[in-house]
Specification:
Layout lengths: L4 H8 L12 E6 L7 H17 L4 E6 L10 H6 L5 E2 L1 E2 L8 H7 L8 H15 L1 H9 L2 E8 L4 E4 L13 E3 L2 H9 L3 E3 L3 H9 L5 E4 L3 H4 L8 E3 L7 E9 H5 L3 H32 L6 E3 L3 H11 L2 H12 L4 H21 L4 H11 L6
Helix pairs in contact: 2-11, 5-14, 5-15, 11-15
Length: 367
C-alpha cells in the first residue's frame, strides 16, 4: 500500500518509541556518481553504516554506483517506479516534476556557501514550501535530506581571466550559472556532470561550471587545463537521501526518525567534505599541469553586476514557469539564507553543531 507522505511525516515526528522487532529490510540505492568519489566514501557509505548499526542490522543497503541503474536524469523515475528504493537526485534535472524546488535551486548566486545552503534549503522545503512536498508526493518519493555544494568555479581547456575571455565560451552549466554565462557572452550547454568529461574531450565544450572537487571525482584533471578561481554561486537542491514512498511506509516511526537525523548529518558532510576536496583539487592542480587563474578586476566586476540582478531574474523565471506563491516563497527563502548565514557564523562551521541545529530547526522531526 502506498503511504501518503504527509501522513508519514506526522508518524515520524512522534517521540521515539521502543524499537519494534522487524524483518530485515535491504534498501537499494542508485547513484550516478563514481563509487570512489567523496560523495560515497565520506558521505553516503558512513551514512549507510550508521543506519545499519543503529537498527541492529534490520536495515541494510545495496548500492549501485556510476550510473549502472540510472543516470542523473532518470533516477527520479527509477525511484518512483520502484527500480531502486533510494537514489541521488538533483532538483535542477527535473523542472517539470519538481517545479517549485527546481526554481528555488535556480537561486545559486544568492547562496553564500554550502553550510548556509544546507540549512536554508532544508528549512525552506520542509517548513515553508508545502507545494514542494506535494511535488515529491506526486512522484511517490519521500525527501529525507537536501544538500548544497561549495561555490562553483569555471574549469576550462583555455585560460579565463578577463571578461573578454568569457565571450564565445561553450560552458556546461544550468540554472543561474547558465544565465551568467550567456550574459557574459558565452554559450551555456546543458548536459549532466558525467557527460561533461566526454564533452571536453571531444571539443564540444570549452568549460564546465561546477565544484572544483569534480577535477578529482570525475577525473576532469584529464581534460581541463585552467581553472578560473572566481566563485560563481552555490548549488542548493541536491537530494542525496530520499526514498520510494512504499519502502518508506515499511519502516517504523523510529527508523524514519533515524533516517532524518542521520540524513541531515550526511547533508552537512557533503558541505564539509566537498569543501575540503575543492581545496585539495586546487592545491594539487599544478601537479596535473592545470593552472589556477585569479580573475581580473573586470571579470569580478561583471559577475558582481550580474549578481545584483538575481532576485529580479528569479521573479521573472517564476512568472515564466508559473510558480504559485513565488513572491512569498522567494521572500521567505531570502530571509532563511540570512538566518543561516548568522547560524553558521555563530557555530563557526562546527559539523556536529550545525547538523544538530538543522535537525532541530529545519527538519520535520526533532522539535
Amino acid at each position: 500500500m502506498k503511504t501518503a507522505f504527509k501522513m508519514t511525516l506526522g508518524a515520524a515526528a512522534l517521540a521515539l518509541a521502543p524499537q519494534i522487532a522487524m524483518a530485515e529490510t535491504e534498501v537499494t540505492y542508485s547513484s550516478w556518481f563514481p563509487g570512489s568519489s567523496t560523495l560515497h566514501t565520506k558521505v553516503l557509505t558512513p551514512f549507510f553504516d550508521r543506519v545499519t548499526e543503529a537498527t541492529g542490522g534490520e536495515v541494510t543497503f545495496k548500492v549501485f554506483t556510476d550510473g549502472t541503474v540510472a543516470g542523473g536524469r532518470n533516477t527520479l523515475q527509477a525511484i518512483r517506479d520502484g527500480v531502486a528504493d533510494m537514489g541521488l537526485l538533483a532538483t535542477s534535472y527535473h523542472p517539470g516534476e519538481l517545479s517549485t524546488a527546481a526554481w528555488l535551486s535556480e537561486g545559486s548566486i544568492l547562496v553564500r556557501d554550502a553550510l548556509v545552503g544546507a540549512g536554508a534549503y532544508n528549512e525552506m522545503i520542509f517548513k515553508h514550501c508545502p507545494q514542494c512536498l506535494d511535488e515529491m508526493e506526486a512522484q511517490g518519493i519521500v525527501p529525507i535530506a537536501y544538500h548544497a555544494t561549495p561555490p562553483y568555479k569555471t574549469m576550462c581547456n583555455k585560460p579565463v581571466e578577463t571578461a573578454e575571455d568569457m565571450k564565445g565560451l561553450r560552458v556546461r552549466t544550468f540554472g543561474s550559472w547558465a544565465s551568467w554565462v550567456n550574459a557574459a557572452g558565452g554559450n551555456a550547454v546543458t548536459m549532466t556532470v558525467p557527460e561533461a568529461y566526454e564533452g571536453l574531450e571531444r571539443g564540444q565544450l570549452d568549460c564546465v561550471a561546477g565544484s572544483a572537487a569534480w577535477l578529482i571525482q570525475f577525473s576532469l584533471f584529464d581534460v581541463v587545463k585552467d581553472v578560473s578561481n572566481l566563485p560563481i554561486g552555490t548549488f542548493a537542491g541536491g537530494i542525496p537521501l530520499n526514498m520510494n514512498a512504499d519502502t518508506w511506509g515499511d519502516l517504523s516511526a523510529e527508523q524514519q526518525t533515524l533516517f532524518y537525523k542521520e540524513g541531515i548529518a550526511a547533508a552537512v558532510d557533503v558541505a564539509v567534505e566537498f569543501d575540503a576536496e575543492d581545496n585539495q583539487a586546487l592545491a594539487e592542480a599544478g601537479g596535473h599541469n592545470v593552472n589556477v587563474i585569479e580573475p581580473a578586476e573586470d571579470l569580478k566586476a561583471a559577475f558582481a553586476a550580474f549578481a545584483e540582478t538575481e532576485v529580479d531574474r528569479m521573479k521573472a523565471l517564476a512568472e515564466q514557469r508559473e510558480i504559485a506563491n513565488a513572491e512569498t516563497l522567494l521572500e521567505t527563502y531570502l530571509g532563511l539564507l540570512k538566518k543561516w548565514e548568522g547560524i553558521v557564523d555563530e557555530l563557526d562551521g562546527d559539523r556536529d553543531a550545525i547538523a544538530a541545529r538543522i535537525y532541530q530547526e529545519a527538519m520535520p522531526v526533532g522539535q
